[in-house]
Amino acid sequence: MGSRVIAIDTGREGQKMCFDTLDAEEFVDFAKGDGVTNIKSVTAGLGTQAIFLVGVSKKPSHQVAEVNLP
Question: What tens digit of pLDDT does each residue of 25-51 get?
């Protein structure tokens, strides 16, 4: 399908795991700044077409609607 992987996590260990295990192209640290703004920044303002949410906290679940393309 040719999807770009933009991983969201926090800290150096999370970043390393995202790049090494998930083969992420981009990494967004949710603890640094606004996650929605950061994702829109790495997608040239377009947002996302698909999201695989594996987080367990409420905040990422709420932000999904803000970064997903209509």
Answer: 988 888 888 888 888 888 888 888 887
Phi-psi region of 33 (alpha: psi -120 to 50; beta: other; left: phi over 0): left
CA distance from start to end of the chain: 19
Q: Which helix (H) or strand (E) holds 26?
A: strand 26-29
Distance, C-alpha 64 to centroid of its chain: 9
- Alpha carbon 17 to chain centroid, angstroms: 14
Looking only at Cα atoms, what is the longest distance across the chain?
Answer: 33
Q: 9-13, 22-26, 51-55: which has the minimum mean pLDDT?
A: 51-55
Asked whether 11 and 30 are in contact (CB, 8 A), the reply is no
User: Which stretches within the chain are classed as H helix?
Assistant: 11-20, 35-42, 58-67
